[in-house]
Design a protein that fits this description.
heterodimer, A: 8 strands, B: about 220 residues, mainly alpha
């Protein structure tokens, strides 16, 4: 076999096996498990904004954010700083006067998926989210738990 | 005349020094990890990703070079990012070993002879000169012929096991490290690419597998 073909064969075997190994060994971390239910795009939270304080459950780091609901879509001001997520559709359901919402934001420039799930009781918001980054060699996830209070739209910093 | 064998006291002292070294090394890694404070957050994930990519390429290239202690980069990646990075380190290690083997395989064996002459290793240089024109099987037969030392015969007969052991032997950097060993294996012409590849896949697996299954207990 010519030398160039031998080199190509060794390279193909190495990269092929490497890709297969990473596929098998790279354990996926599922996104936040959002409770099932009758989720609808009701726009029930349109026009409301919240100031949110959260904690990274792994590192304990404190995070401040503002989230905005408008025209059936949702945006996190803080997340926009790291990736141009844009406006994501959000869905709601109401149980015993408590509004539940969920939204999934996908980063168009990097493999980030952020899944939000929160409940609004009166003016008080409680929420959980996972920021999952699925690179070809690993999956990393940040879990955040937070709470928020409604703020007037003109108070939003964006 | 004083015997050369290691006394019980000497053995205890050396074992104590070794344990002390391991404890200090573990403590050192712990300190480095704390100092780096590697937390992956949304605001630094892109930088961490770029650093890992640069580190992985540097790791492959440096590990493939003889006498260059590239393994430290792999250990630093494992220490910094834990078990999650082990698959990447494993794949990069295999790639580095195969890169070194491929380079060695396609280097002219005359280059090895000249290096040995330059190092004044005349017997080894003569041996290479005699082996150069022979086929793979003839080289093995020539190397085995006249070998009275059972260790050498055993290493040649089970050369794939021997190279796996050599790759995993602590302190192998004094004989060229993993990259140097694989370049020489390629140059020798007595290792086939397929069998070498299978050997490397198994030989470099202990550390990443240990990290995956046992984790890094910091």
């Amino acid at each position: 076999m010519p030398q160039i073909l031998q080199i190509a064969a060794i390279a193909a075997a190495t990269f092929g096996t490497g890709a297969a190994t990473l596929t098998v060994m790279n354990e996926d971390i599922p996104d936040l498990a959002v409770p099932e239910g009758d989720w609808t795009a009701s726009g029930a939270l349109d026009g409301i904004s919240f100031s949110v304080s959260g904690t990274d459950l792994s590192s304990g780091a404190e995070l401040e954010d503002e989230i905005i609901f408008r025209e059936g879509t949702f945006q996190s001001v803080d997340c926009e700083q790291y990736c141009n997520f844009g406006w994501s559709d959000y869905f709601t359901k109401e149980i015993d006067g408590v509004i539940h919402f969920t939204a999934t934001a996908l980063c168009p420039d990097a493999p980030h998926t952020v899944v939000w799930y929160g409940t609004l009781e009166g003016d008080e918001l409680a929420l959980d989210l996972t920021w999952t980054t699925r690179r070809w060699y690993w999956t990393n996830q940040i879990q955040i738990r937070g709470a928020g209070v409604a703020i007037p739209p003109e108070a939003v910093s964006s | 005349m004083k015997p050369h064998g290691l006394s019980l006291r000497g053995l205890i002292i050396k074992t104590g020094i070794l344990i002390g070294f391991i404890v200090l090394a573990t403590w050192g890694v712990h300190m480095i990890r704390d100092a780096l404070d590697l937390q992956i957050r949304p605001d630094n994930e892109q930088q961490v990703h770029k650093a890992i990519m640069v580190g992985a390429v540097a790791y492959v290239v440096l590990l493939a070079l003889p006498f260059v202690p590239g393994a430290e980069i792999g250990i630093a990646l494992l220490a910094g990012f834990g078990a999650a990075i082990a698959p990447l380190v494993y794949v990069c290690t295999v790639a580095a070993m195969m890169l070194a083997f491929t380079v060695g395989r396609f280097l002219p064996i005359g280059a090895l002879e000249r290096v040995l002459w330059a190092l004044r290793l005349r017997r080894a240089a003569n041996l290479v000169a005699r082996a150069a024109p022979l086929s793979k099987d003839e080289r093995v037969a020539m190397l085995l012929a006249g070998q009275s030392k059972w260790v050498v015969r055993l290493a040649l007969q089970y050369r794939y096991v021997a190279i796996a052991v050599a790759m995993n032997t602590p302190g192998n950097s004094i004989i060229g490290g993993g990259g140097g060993i694989m370049i020489l294996a390629g140059l020798s012409g007595i290792f086939t690419p397929t069998s070498t590849f299978l050997t490397v896949i198994i030989a470099v697996s202990p550390v990443p597998l240990a990290v995956i299954f046992l984790g890094l207990q910091f």
